Amino acid sequence: MQTSATHKYLRIAPRKVRLVADLIKGKKVADARAILKYTVKGAAEPLAKTLHSAVSAAKNNFQSEESNLYISKVTVNEGPKLKRYRPRARGRAYPIQKKTSHITVVLDEINETVHTEGKKEKTAKGAQGEVVEKKIEVSAKPKFRPAREMAKPKAEGRVKKMFRRKAV
């Protein structure tokens, strides 16, 4: 089940927030929290709060376990700009745009479980005659991809030719 949380009108430029958001895309919630805790950027704290809000919503609304959640999508959109002006030489005004951003964090489950609310399957009666109930759980493949190794640059051979020493 997908769960999302948003933080609107954050007074940090979206370009700066995207640097931190890219660090946690596709990670498990525990890993993302550790990364955000030790990231020095100013956008780490609002992202951590938004992540915490999304995890709380997943626990409360869908009874999901935190260890079963991962970040499927983090989007940082541009919000409205606050327009200000600074005085310049010869009576001119220089415009300044104070940018804002909107953060959306979407969580998904690694192994999805079907939660039955009020719908329980009745099975054979037990020894005492009471009805035994069971919950239905469905396991799926993990939806996130493991990190890939960086490919070697193709121009490596050309670089060696450019800086080769000539024999004297």
| Name of the level-1 CATH class of the domain at 3-110 | Alpha Beta
* Terminus-to-terminus distance: 69 Å
For this structure, the CATH topology of the domain at 3-110 is Ribosomal Protein L22, Chain A
Q: What is the percentage of strand-forming residues? A: 25-35%
The helix content, as a percent range, equals 25-40%
What is the N-to-C succession of helices and strands? EHHHEEEEEEH
The CATH architecture of the domain at 3-110 would be Alpha-Beta Complex
Q: Which descriptor suits the 3D outline?
A: flat
User: Strands across the major sheet, in which order?
Assistant: 1-5-2
Full CATH superfamily name of the domain at 3-110: Ribosomal protein L22/L17
Overall pLDDT? 82
Q: Tell me which oligomeric state these chains represent.
A: single chain
Low-confidence stretches: 119-124
Q: What is the CA-based Rg, rounded?
A: 26 Å
Number of helices: 4
